[in-house]
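Recap slide: O-antigen ligase-related domain-containing protein, sequence and predicted structure.
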Amino acid sequence: MLNAFIIAAFSFASVSFIFSFWTKNNCFFRFGALCILIFAVAVFSGNKQITFFLYAILSVYILKTELDNAIYFYLVLLPVFPLAVSWSIGLPGIDVLIILNHNRVLLLCLFGPLFLRLLGRGIPVIDPAKSYSGVADRLILFYIFIECFTHFRDDNSLVAARNSILVFIDIWLPYFVISRSIKNVDTALVVVVYTAAMLAVLSIIEEKVFYRIYDAITLPMGEPFKLMKLRGGKLRTFASMNNPLVLGFFFALSFLVAVKIRSLLRCPIYVPLFLGALIILGVEASGSRSPLAANFIGFLVLIWWFFGRQFVKKTATYAFIFFILFLVWFFSGGIDLVLQLDNEQGTFYYRYELILNSMHLIKENLLFGSSPAIFLQDPILMNSIQGEGIIDVTNTYLFLMLKSGIFSLLAFLGIWLTVLRGLYVVETPEHTASILMSVSISTMFMLFICSPILFVPAYFWILIALSIGLIRRYSGGVIATSQAKNLIQRSL
């Protein structure tokens, strides 16, 4: 345990010093010191309540500073601390009403007071309908309503009420606070790369020494030891995420920011090259393949944006035509070739079979889906059981259709399309919108090939909040009107 703490502390301090040097900002060194302090208290005390008390003290400090600081602290503390650690306040009545984990503790301590503070300032809960943020607000609230409805459908009243509160905490609380209070999205993106660099260093070390550092840190806190996962004879590192796929997902988000970090920091060319290589090595250590494909898609978006938006429009047209031709080829016999070229683990075939085995469930429960306890026991879907004895719904959109129906899926897709449209029309310095757009598109692609496990949703809701915050800041959130209407307004 002591060795694990020393390695983690040294890695955090080193990365913090490097980022402080690059950015000429001591806040990154303070971030590293804070992480080491919380690690030390959590590990050597073995008491979750003491760590909870530290967060409460931090929230008091945050209330006296700028709102952005709370967001930066949240973005740092969320990935670097063991996310799977469950929390218990110790009060029976409270423990029944709410299930706490590391993310929710951070949200309640850092964002809870800020949520009330924003409401006290008269910030509207929902923006006007004629704005991108207003459209996103309404779609997110509708999505939350559908999720709460499904909880009351599947569970008793007490459990459903508790889960509905958790949905509000997990989705609306971070979205509202970040989108309304963020002033400098560039700094937030740099903070994300900073935390990714710390985890990448630890992941590389874990792979080389075949030893999971975070397990030694979480064991004193009551977390059970996790089974080793191997791929190709190599250890799949978890770091703090408790799952290699979630770690790879976080690295995928960070890589595209690292590629463009030169425009955010005004730093030498070797900085993005070094950070990009470091994060790619972290992805390789996690053994996750889908982040590499997602990074490729997002990188193409950055290239298109670099050549200009007219080029994007032309390329999108040709890409759409190519996609239609690909679908025709695919369903007219090309699928047989793809299945023959699939690897020994059946990566593509399993996803294809999963969709086929789910179609009858979608038709039977099209509007609002059905409980996972029901559709996961379906005899036809049981044909998709993996070697571990589970049905891994490796498609977030398919999972939404099965669980909550078409209304939930349309709301979810509508949120992403609103974000993409807003980022496309907004004019921002330093290409921040292009970075967020590339990350959003790669995230949408990743959600198509991975399941919404553990803390994957926490990160894509943060991404949506940062994007809406950027749109609100630089465009006022107003949806672009036609040129004729603009001319009429100018003449008046």
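The CA atoms of residues 64 and 86 lie 29 Å apart.
Strands lie at 86-87, 100-101, 230-231, 234-235.
(End of recap.)
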